[in-house]
C-alpha cells in the first residue's frame, strides 16, 4: 500500500516502536532505563490506541516474565531495556528459549560492567550471542546500525521469532537509539504466525489441554529436548547475513557490527580513496554469525595474504568468532575502542593502517 | 484382572435408580495418582480448585500458571491449558497471559517460597495493579520439595534444615502474613486465609475460592486465597499429628478469615 509509506525524521528508539507496531506488536512490557526511555514512552502512547496492552512492570524480571505469559498465548510481544536491565531478564530468556516461545527483546547497550555509564558500548555481545542465561540455548541476535535498520529489523525480528519459536534479541547501543535520521516506514507488515494456532494457549475448548514448559523430568526426555533445540539452532544458520563493502580485492578486511561498523565503513572509504586495499564486513546477524561468509573471504584471499581486523566497542568479544570463522586461512587482529563514549572514523584510521602494515610484515617474513 | 476390577468399581460407583450421587471427582481434575506425600493437603486443594472451576463452567476458558516447588506439577493434575513459570514469577506470567487474552480465566498455583520469598515483588505488584487474575497460595511453613528448609512463613521456634535450632526472630524475622498484606492493596478485590484441616474449614475454603474466581470474572480485581496446608514429611509428623498442628500452631499465627471483599 503506497499510501501507508511514510518517511519520518526520528530517533532509532522511535524507529524501534514503529517497527514493532508495523510488525503487529500486541503486548509490550518494560521498566524504564536510560538510554532507551523513548521506547516505553512512545509505546505507552501508541500501543493502547491500537488495541494493544502496555504494562510498566515493577522490574525487568517481571517484564520479561510477562513476555513469557503473552508469548505462551501466541501474542506478538516485546520489551526493551538497556544492559543492566537485560541482565535481570536472563532467567526468563532461558525459560522462553527452553519453552520455545517467540518474543522480541531490544537491548540499547550502554557502558558496563555494573552501572557503567549511559554512553554507547558493545560490551553485551557475549551476553547476547553466547546465551546469557543458564542452560544450553541460543537466541537470534540482530544488530542495527541505523534508524532504518532499527525499523526494518523489528519487523524481521518478529517474523524470525515465530518462524523458529524462539526469542530474538535486537542489539543496538546508545548511539543508534538516540541518533535522529530519516526512516522510511512501510505500514503494517504481512503477518505469518507459522502455525502458532497449533500450540498457543487459548483455553482447551473442544480439544485436549496444551502445556508449555521447560521442565523435562522423565528419563531421556531432557536429552531429547536439547537435541531438538540444537537441530533448530542449526537450522537457523541460514539466516546469517552481513553487509560487505569493497572486499573483492581487499588485503585487509575490517569486521565490525552496529554503529561501529558504520563508522568503520567511513574509515575504509577514506583509506580506499587514498589507495589502500581495505574492505569491510558488517555482520547484521550476530547469532547466527556470518561465519561462512568470512571463511569464504579468507579462503578466496589466501593468494593475496588477506588478513582481518576486528574493531569493537569493547575489549574484544566478537573477535573470537571472527578468528574461529577464518582460522583455516587467516587470522584477525583486534582494535577495541573503550566503551562509554563515541569514536569517530579518525580513531580507526591508525589501527587499520597498523594492521595493514603488520600484515605486510608478516607476509614478507613468510616469503 | 485390572479391567475386571475397574468394571466392578464402576458398577459400585454408578448410582442406582434409588440412589443420589453426592460426591464425585471433578471433571477439571485429571484421574491420575498424585506425587504428594501421604497426609499432604496439596491434593485436596487441587480438588477444591477443580471443583470450583467445574461449578463455574470455567475449565474450557481457563489457563493455569504453574510455579516451582511442590506446586510445580499442577499441569499433571488439572485438565486445562497450562504454562509453567520460573520460580516466583507466576503472577508476572499470569499478567502476560491475561493481557494477551483478557477473555480467558487465569489463575496461578504457588507455594510460600515461591510467592512470599522469591516472588514477593511480582505478587505484590500484580495485586496492586489489580490484575484480573486469581492466586491460590499454599502456605505449609516450609520449602517442601527442596527438603524442608526455612520459608518466610516458618513459625518462630519451628525447626527446619536451615534453622536447626528453630526460627529466631532476631536473625530470620517473623512469619509473613500474606493474606493480610494483600488486603491492604487497592487492586485486591478479595483476600482470605483458609484451612482444609476439617470438613467445616473445607466448606469455607470452597466458598473463598469461588469468591476469588468470581471477582476476576466480574472484573473487580485481583483474587487471593491463602491455604494453610500440611507437610508431614518435612515437619517429621504423621498425617494425623500434622493435621492437628494446623489447628494448634498454624491458625494461632495465621488467623483464618476474609480480610477483604469487594462487592459487585
Give a description of the structure.
The complex is a heterodimer of chains A (367) and B (264). Chain A is of the alpha/beta class. Chain A is built from twelve helices and 15 strands. Chain A folds into two domains: 2-238, Thiamin diphosphate (ThDP)-binding fold, Pyr/PP domains (Rossmann fold); 240-366, Rossmann fold. Chain A starts with 5 loop residues before the first strand and ends with a helix. In chain A, the strands form three sheets. In chain A, strands 3-2-4-5-7-6-13 form a seven-stranded mixed β-sheet, sandwiched between helices. The longest helix of chain A has 21 residues, at 346-366. By secondary structure, chain B is an alpha/beta fold. Chain B has eleven helices and seven strands. Chain B has a seven-stranded mixed β-sheet, sandwiched between helices. In chain B, helix 2 (42-55) packs across helix 9 (199-217). The relative contact order of chain B is 0.14. Chain A binds chain B through residues 26-27, 29, 53, 55, 57-59, 61-63, 65-75, 77, 91-92, 95, 99, 201-206, 209-215, and chain B through 59-63, 65-66, 72, 75, 79-86, 89, 92-101, 104-105, 121-122, 124-125, 129. Strand 9 of chain A pairs parallel with strand 2 (81-84) of chain B, so a sheet runs across the interface.
